[in-house]
């Protein structure tokens, strides 16, 4: 990756990915208690001040579960590290974001927010589309061990399971 970060970071299957996200009819809602509870558990398990359940839309990243950034319901996709995390089927971990060339211009890292650590697992649909992430964030560098790696992947699976359960309840208009 080069030294840029922004809207040009788009999955090759973006159009299909957005259609898959749309099937869940969840972007119009504010953060929800189920996903907020999941974020609270993640923050405690990983001992981070910030934990999010996010969904990556065309222009924005929406926080469906949010601990540590209360009052923020969405951010511009071009600034969100979750936009990077949906590019891979594996976890995205930045132990110290200041040491990552691809984050040099990111305002969440270089700006007053001061993001230093990020670990995000993609929320992947049964069809294989990464529609969002579960992530934990800190303002200090951290290591991420194999147990934590496994746990974060399981949290992503729990989030996807909840979305699938809800999809079955949605009645077409």
In brief:
With 173 residues, the protein is α+β, with helices and mostly antiparallel strands. The protein has five helices and six strands.
Describe this structure in words.
With about 170 residues, the protein is α+β, with helices and mostly antiparallel strands. It has a single domain, classed as Beta-Lactamase (2-Layer Sandwich). The protein has 5 helices and 6 strands; from the N terminus they run ααβββαβαββα. The chain has a 6-stranded antiparallel β-sheet. It is globular. The protein starts with 13 loop residues before the first helix and ends in a 6-residue tail after the last helix.
Summarize this structure as a short list of keywords or feature phrases.
alpha+beta; Beta-Lactamase; 5 helices; disordered N terminus
Q: State the helicity in percent bands.
A: 25-40%
CATH fold topology: Beta-Lactamase
- CATH domain class: Alpha Beta
User: pLDDT below 50 for ≥5 consecutive residues: which ranges?
Assistant: 1-7
Order of helices and strands: HHEEEHEHEEH
Strand content: 15-25%
Helix and strand content put the structural class at alpha+beta
Kindly report how far apart the N and C termini lie.
43 Å
Spatial strand arrangement across the major sheet:
3-2-1-6-5-4
């Amino acid at each position: 990756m080069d030294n840029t970060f922004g809207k040009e970071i788009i999955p090759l299957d973006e159009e299909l990915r957005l259609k898959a996200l749309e099937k869940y009819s969840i972007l119009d809602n504010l953060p929800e208690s189920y996903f907020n509870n999941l974020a609270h558990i993640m923050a405690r398990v990983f001992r981070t001040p910030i934990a999010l359940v996010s969904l990556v839309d065309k222009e924005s990243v929406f926080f469906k579960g949010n601990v540590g950034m209360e009052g923020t319901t969405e951010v511009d996709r071009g600034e969100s590290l979750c936009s990077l995390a949906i590019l891979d089927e594996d976890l995205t971990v930045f132990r110290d974001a200041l040491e990552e060339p691809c984050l040099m211009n990111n305002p969440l890292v270089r700006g007053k927010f001061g993001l230093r650590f990020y670990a995000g697992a993609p929320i992947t649909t049964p069809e294989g589309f990464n529609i969002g992430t579960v992530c934990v964030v800190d303002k200090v560098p951290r290591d991420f061990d194999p147990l934590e790696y496994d746990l974060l992947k399981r949290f992503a699976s729990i989030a996807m399971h909840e979305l699938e359960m809800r999809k079955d309840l949605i009645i077409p208009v």
